[in-house]
């Protein structure tokens, strides 16, 4: 219930003799306090419509406005959607898309992968070593 409806209801229920008298019937006061009382009477707000408000305007809650404009994190829903699908792109296609989206600056480039060195194995087998030992040192 709005304040204006309450005020109107109180005006209707007010006793007929207690209302404000018409301006011609008011008694003038010669006391020193008369000017202060007149000022107070003049400054007292009359019941009625507040001119500062717009008709039909609703006061918005600052918290609701904040929640409405706050950024929403869609990561969980997007992951669920992406993982739900059965089609998985091949690694070559994935690399191609990533390469297209990558910038040309060095900071945008992925770190270069160092080629793994294969441990160099010997060409000779254990039997070859025994054979060489027999021939060179003369042991059986």
TrEMBL record:
| Residue span of region Disordered | 14-56, 98-122
Q: Which GO terms describe its cellular component?
A: nucleolus
Return the protein name. Answer: Active regulator of SIRT1
**Recorded family membership:** Belongs to the AROS family.
Organism listed in the record: Nyctiprogne leucopyga
The UniProt keywords, alphabetically, are:
Nucleus
Alphabetical list of PANTHER family matching this protein: ACTIVE REGULATOR OF SIRT1 (PTHR31454:SF2)
Please name one Pfam family that this protein belongs to: AROS
What subcellular locations does the record give? Nucleus, Nucleolus
What's a single GO MF annotation on this record?
Answer: enzyme binding
Q: Which InterPro entries match?
A: AROS
């Amino acid at each position: 219930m709005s304040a204006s409806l309450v005020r109107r209801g109180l005006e209707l229920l007010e006793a007929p003799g207690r209302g404000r008298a018409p301006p011609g019937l008011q008694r003038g006061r010669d006391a020193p306090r008369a000017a202060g009382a007149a000022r107070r009477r003049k400054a007292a707000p009359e019941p009625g419509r507040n001119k500062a408000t717009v008709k039909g305007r609703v006061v918005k809650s600052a918290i609701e406005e904040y929640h409405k404009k706050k950024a929403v994190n869609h990561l969980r829903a997007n992951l669920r959607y992406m993982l739900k699908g059965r089609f998985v792109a091949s690694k070559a296609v994935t690399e191609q898309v990533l390469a297209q989206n990558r910038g040309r600056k060095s900071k945008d480039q992925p770190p270069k992968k160092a080629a793994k060195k294969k441990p160099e194995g010997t060409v000779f087998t254990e039997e070859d070593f025994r054979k060489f030992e027999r021939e060179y040192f003369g042991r059986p």
